[in-house]
Fold:
Amino acid sequence: MLTPSDDPSPRHPSHEPDGGTSAPVPATGPLVETALRAINAHRSGDEAGAAAILNELCDRGRGAELPVERLIVLLKELWQDDAPKSSVRARASSNQLARLVSACIVSYYES
Structure:
């Protein structure tokens, strides 16, 4: 299970898909903690729990005026920090991540 303290580096989402016009996502704090909870729920197979947490993540993101792309970058970076290395497990993990990203996009625009 991932926790915010697993990665001490402040690099989480340093990408700027919007050309740097909005503030970067912080490396720690409620947004990261919520994203980690969503990832952990999704990985454990708790789709209903993951969906509820993604709604919370998207609410927080919109409240911080972050586009959905920033939330996706956050999820992907946190996911990759703990991704399996074997090719079979990596492929399954990639499919799980794709489903999580899709659910995040739906949640962002529907909630």
Observations:
- Residues 38 and 103 are 11 Å apart (CA to CA).
